[in-house]
Design goal:
The complex is a heterodimer of chains A (305) and B (336). Chain A contains 11 helices and 2 strands. Chain A is mainly alpha-helical and 305 residues long. Chain A has a domain of 208 residues. Chain B has one domain: ABC transporter involved in vitamin B12 uptake, BtuC (Orthogonal Bundle), CATH 1.10.3470. Chain B has 336 residues and is mostly helical. The longest helix of chain B is centred in the C-terminal third of the chain and has 27 residues. The chains are: A mainly alpha (305), B mainly alpha (336). Chain A: Belongs to the binding-protein-dependent transport system permease family. LivHM subfamily.
């Protein structure tokens, strides 16, 4: 296992973690501000990927990327206005059920549009090449671009929340929604904006990942579950926690996939070692979550005190 | 708290008495496979078995979710464990190999016992950790534990991995020909009736009152001298055992098990049965599961995109039809 291989896999883990962060940031923002569990967040990720895959062949990748963000954010705003708004006062059970219903509806809608076949999305020509890592291993530029884009969006999000008026309102909404309502902030519109923002982030992640894998119905659900694990590890409502936890989960998952099969191969035949190792790697994330919650029941960075 | 107040303040509108609605549902469910069999439609008798099994899974979850307020998004774990116990036991009996030193069996009664025992044991572990948290964290943690078991099932090549494993011959039940759709449906309905009886007796007993109080006002329960945690844990374990039994029957119904039984979609569907029918109502999950199976069959006959219709119906129930089917017919529940 050479250093170059470790760098390559480390970058893969980082890229995975950064994409998960985009998902988890929206999810944790929506929960932190509105107290809503959005199971349909994975469906918005899928919508972003589908919009990109449908628009990109006609108008190019960058237009597709924009279409992915706009489609997901638009659908997010629509969902907030029509379905989520009546549910703010209800318990989490109703929110779980309503957003579960939304998954069924959006997935079936995507199946109608695509005819149930997976779509393929080409990466933009400018990013299609590869660079040579120290150690002589070629590495795709596109994955590096994803890491850069994810970190850049994370920085923008941080600036938005720390430095702008909207960010002040979002933080105030997390802390005390009645007070900022009394101070004259239109809380209903703030909620719609936050929901659309979270949905747009999911759409962006979906559109970018669409060039690495097939775009198909159900692609959002494994990512959704990982995003849930991340926001629970990071502390629900905390963007910083989501960032740390996303990288932790991305790297743990990738490291598990490399090292566990190799470790098991010492005792088992290679084929079985690979199968068992990759499944144990998927379990390792949940073990990580259970371990974190055992020590800190409210996550690494609890949002409220 | 607000929910409790609403329940007490709900005006007593003129609605059907709940016992009458329950009796009607029970009678209809019993008549369904009998009529289907008499009409020479074994497929419809099989569908009745499916409805009864899904209802049974819902009756299990209802104990935790409806009465105890524990929103578990991980009951697929117990459903799947029950299914795998049935398949592995039948397989071990077929090959004569045994599992972990225990002999396999192709009889339903010992399989049910094992499925319930293993589900209960796993639930004891999951519950002991998960019940330290509440609210959203409880939902997420139960989901995470179920996913853990899901990946374990995928990883285990000996038990079929991603492909699952078949049950070549439906397991036997004394005095019944379980391969006949009518007999199998009656076995499933018998199990459902037993679970409903247990659920009813439990919730009417001191334990059930304590459980309902633990949901509505845990502080009051504690000041009355009862710790909420053990009460909730016990309810969670019993709930898991009932859902595990449903899983064993479901494996027999389909003739195979796959990791999909453990997937989080299954957990979502079991929640749907409970809420569609009426949360915390004795016959709620039964009404919900029957409605679900009919929707699936009828919409599925019209369009391949039946999940779209199902999603819209669900959305309508959440937004406008609080209290589910039983709530619609009998009015809001007074307590519990």
């Amino acid at each position: 296992m050479s250093a170059a291989f470790l760098i390559e896999q480390g970058l893969n883990g980082l890229q995975f973690g950064v994409m998960l962060f985009l998902m988890a940031a929206g999810l944790t923002l929506i929960f932190g501000v509105m107290g809503v569990i959005n199971l349909a967040h994975g469906a918005l990720y899928m919508v972003g990927a589908f919009a990109c895959a449908l628009v990109a062949p006609e108008a190019g990748f960058w237009a597709g990327l924009g279409a992915g963000i706009v489609a997901a954010a638009g659908l997010g705003a629509l969902i907030e206005l029509s379905v989520i708004r009546p549910l703010y006062a209800r318990d989490h059970l109703d929110q779980v059920l309503a957003t579960f219903a939304l998954i069924l509806i959006v997935s079936e809608g995507a199946r109608m549009v695509s005819g149930g076949r997976p779509l393929w999305l080409d990466m933009p020509a400018a990013l299609a090449g590869s660079v040579t890592l120290p150690g002589g291993v070629p590495y795709p530029v596109y994955r590096l671009a994803l890491i850069g884009a994810g970190l850049g969006v994370g920085l923008l999000l941080w600036l938005l929340i720390r430095q702008t008026r909207l960010g002040i309102r979002i933080r105030a909404g997390q802390a005390d929604r009645e007070m900022i309502d009394a101070l004259g902030v239109d809380i209903a519109r703030l909620y719609t904006v936050v929901f659309a923002l979270g949905a747009g982030l999911a759409g962006l992640a979906g559109a970018m990942v669409g060039a690495l894998q097939s775009v198909e119905v159900g692609m959002g659900e494994p990512v959704l579950i990982l995003a849930f694990v991340i926001i629970v590890i990071g502390g629900i409502g905390s963007i910083r926690g989501a960032f740390v936890a996303a990288l932790l989960v991305g790297l743990t998952d990738t490291a598990g996939r490399i090292f566990l099969p190799a470790l098991l191969a010492l005792a088992w035949p290679p084929a079985e070692a690979t199968a068992i190792g990759s499944a144990l790697a998927s379990m390792s994330i949940y073990v990580l979550m259970a371990a974190v919650l055992a020590v800190r029941p409210r996550g690494l960075f609890p949002a409220h005190g | 708290m607000a929910e409790a107040a609403a329940e007490i303040a709900a005006p007593a509108r003129r609605r059907l008495p709940e016992w009458a609605v329950n009796a009607a549902i029970a009678a209809a469910l019993l008549a369904w496979p009998l009529l289907a069999d008499a009409a020479g439609e074994p497929w419809w008798a099989g569908l009745a078995a499916k409805a009864a099994i899904l209802a049974l899974a819902g009756v299990g979850l209802n104990l935790a979710l409806g009465y105890g307020g524990m929103v578990s998004l991980g009951h697929a774990a117990f459903f799947g464990i029950g299914g795998y116990v049935a398949a592995i036991s039948a397989d071990a009996a077929f090959s004569g190999a045994g599992v972990l030193g225990l002999p396999g069996s192709d009889r339903m009664l010992p399989i049910w016992l094992a499925a319930m025992a293993l589900s209960a044991l796993v639930a004891l572990g999951i519950g002991a950790i998960s019940l330290r948290t509440e609210g959203v964290y409880f939902i997420m943690i139960t989901l995470a534990f179920a996913q853990m078991i899901y990946y374990l099932a995928i990883s285990w090549p000996a038990y079929g991995g991603e492909d699952g494993m078949p049950i070549y011959l439906r397991n036997g039940f004394p005095g019944m020909d379980t391969n006949a759709p009518l007999d199998f449906a009656l076995v499933c309905l018998g199990a459902l009736a037993a679970a409903l009886l247990l659920s009813w007796r439990l919730t009417e007993a001191r334990f059930g009152r304590a459980l309902i109080c633990a949901r509505m006002n845990p502080l009051r329960l504690a000041t009355l001298g009862m710790e909420p945690f053990p009460v909730k844990l016990a309810a969670f374990v019993i709930s898991a055992a009932i859902t595990g039994l449903a899983g064993a029957l479901y494996a027999d119904l389909n003739g195979y098990v796959s990791p999909a039984m453990l997937g989080w979609h299954t957990s979502g569907e079991i929640i749907v049965f409970v809420i569609l029918g009426g949360t915390g109502r004795l016959f709620g999950p039964v009404a919900g599961a029957v409605l679900y199976v009919w929707l699936e069959t009828l919409l599925g006959g019209v369009t391949v995109h039946w999940q779209m219709g199902l999603g819209l119906v669900l959305l309508g129930v959440v937004l406008f039809g609080r209290g589910g089917l039983i709530g619609l017919l009998c009015g809001a529940r007074r307590h519990g």
